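Reply to dn_fold:

You asked what the input looked like. This is it:
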Amino acid sequence: MTDPLERLRRAAAEPGHGRWSPLRRWLEENREGFAGVLPQRPNWQAIARELAAMGLTDGAGKPPTAAVACLTWHRVKEGQEAKAEKPERVVRERPPETPPVPEAPAPGAAPKRRFRRVGE
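and this is what came back:
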């Protein structure tokens, strides 16, 4: 009988949703070099063949098609552009949650009257 944790570990490593494909990981790791070799209008059919020859697969574990290779590359580029454009987070101070306590009168001083006496 197989250990349940071992079965879960193997299931989590299977291709599918929730993690990046080997193709996406490779494109992320080699983004600058890959961008440097792409012409203005790349031939995605030829690129997909070469990526498959390198042993890279899509999220389902299949060799990438031209459409998958192109879409994955554009997602990698968009992700990098979004990181570059993201403004720095500004941390604001929170106002005090309770109003400040009024100061106590000086020792020996007459207490401050809050109301006028009738007839004054």
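The CA atoms of residues 103 and 112 lie 12 Å apart.
Hope that clears it up.
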